Amino acid sequence: MSELRWNPLLGEWVATATQRQDRTFLPPDDYCPLCPTHPGGFPTEVPESNYDIVVFENRFPSLKTVPNPPTVESSDLYPVRPSQGVCEVVLYSPNHGSSLGQEPVEQIYKLVRVWSDRFRELGALDFVEYVFIFENKGEAIGVTLHHPHGQIYAYPFVPPRIATELKQFTHYQESTGACLLCDVLAEEFQARRRIVAENDSFAAVIPFFARWPYETHIYSKRHFQAITDMSDPEARDLASILKTVLVAFDELFNLSFPYMMVMHQRPVDGLSYDFYHFHVEFYPPLRSANRLKYLAGSEAGAGMFINDTLPEEKAAELRAHVREVVWQAPNSEEHG
Amino acid sequence: MSEAPPRVIKRQVVMADGRYLIFYEFESAPGVVSSDRVVQISQITADRSAEEN
Question: Which of A65, A150, A232, A248 sits 20 to 30 Å CA-CA off A199?
Answer without folding.
Answer: A150
